[in-house]
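Students often ask why we bother predicting the structure of a whole assembly rather than each chain alone. The short answer is interfaces. A chain on its own may look different once its partners are present, and contacts between molecules only exist in the joint model. In this exercise we take two input lines together and write out one structure for the complete complex. Read the inputs first and try to guess which parts will touch.
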Amino acid sequence: MSVFEGFVFTYGTSAIHRLDPRVKLLYAFSIMILSLIFSSLIIQVLLFLIQIPIVFSAGVGRRWFKTMRGCLMIAIIIFASNLIARWLNSGYKLSLDFFEISFAMTFRFVALVASFSIFSLTTSPDDLSLAMEQMRVPYWFCFAFTTAIRLMPTLARDAQAIMDAQKSRGLELEKGNFIKRIRNYVPILIPLIVSAIRRSFELAEAMESKAWGANVKRTSMKKLKFKFSDYITLFLILFSLVLGFYVNWFIKIPKISSLMKLI
Amino acid sequence: MIVVENVYYKYPNGVEALKGVSFTIQDGEFVAIMGENGAGKTTLIKHFNGLLKPSRGRVLVDGVDTRNVSVAQLSRKVGIVFQNPDSQLFCGTVEEEIAYALKNFGFDGESIKRRVDWALHLLDLERYRNRSPFTLSGGEKKRVALASVLAWDPDILVLDEPTIGQDFRQKERLRQFILQLNAQGKTIIIVTHDVEFVADCTPSPRVILMAGGRIVADGRAERILTDLKFVREASIIPPQISQVFMALSDLGFPRDVINVYEARKILLSRIERR
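Now the answer. The structure tokens for the assembled complex follow.
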């Protein structure tokens, strides 16, 4: 469960925390766009490395690192499947290029997780909802979105309680062959789904008793406004995006393997 | 027998829930673990069947260190009934729900049938045998959860907050049931902050009072629940009867009465003397 730790917001006061959520969202998407348009390993590693100072200036390093460590397994799978696919495609040959491309794909994934983890670690769900509302996303959607985020820890706690109860009744999750192991999760999934459905009905009732949706035109007490620091960050992000596109179209980035040959 | 030796437990998120807890529970004892929310009660009982392993110190169940055996093996001896029955019910019928653990523990078909019948009868659930557990009321679900653990007849029965959400009559029945099981020699451990429930048990249980991950007091209920210092430390209040007797202590009444029947006896004898 440690993978999700880097996606849970806790209150903070760093400069990153205080940035406008829209700017941070743009940051996460820019990293995504940049890492998708490039296929060079150098750029992917760079995209990952430039995020590390941001993490530390926000003071969320420990939990961010936990998430990065948690996604190591998926990263290895991505690397291995890329490498194996290329190996099979080329008629069972391996070259340094294949390693480089597979590494690039892996770092693309890592950079993506890193950027969205920074976003969720430093942006409260309320601010995110506010940002979406001001971007004219329908309110019901914003509400559903923040509710989903908010219920995640609750669901995790439920799952733990259910696992404890079933293990106390002699359930052994790691026992049996592959099919049996999947079946072992039935006693956990059924109560979990039932409780999630029950919770959603309760939430619906609570919302209705508080007259949710009675007023079509909502106003909010807090309004997001760009500060000077937001404008500067916005400029930096847009500049990096433009630079990224420019480099992508007009400059050929060398491969690490060819650089190594030069030496 | 459960031996807890200087147990510390720290959750992965860094919260230290137990800070050096030690005690021994003998076979056939009736123990109430009490204390405020977040005192570490539930964390403690999860050590009894190995769901949690101590970060420091050790827990021995019948002489076996809980770190060396699986939860399933320990659960055969230590049956825990958790607070919320919804976290365990998943079968199509009450009958299957009770049989589930028996299958896990490897009982044969004939004895599964016999034990399910026995547990259904014991908790007065026979008429719900073929009902879906999800359609039952809260109190009935709690009884199904209890039956599903009692069915395999563990030597030690641990009940986490058994009185929550039960009406007065259900509580009374539960109390009789617990006392009866204890009289038959089963070790009973209940976790609760229902002071009145504990006070009205005769014979009175041993109370282990917890606060902030430590044991504040350990002894007979009459002594612990009437000691204002202990009671305050664990954020509970003395039973109503003992509050009355404390208020009457200047008239020469004893301070350590917690039980209605005993209170009645003392008051009647005083009236007769007049």
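Check your guess against this: Chain B touches chain A at residues 12, 46, 49, 51, 70-72, 75-76, 79-80, 82, 84, 86-90, 100-101, 104-105, 134, 148-149, 152 (CB under 8 Å).
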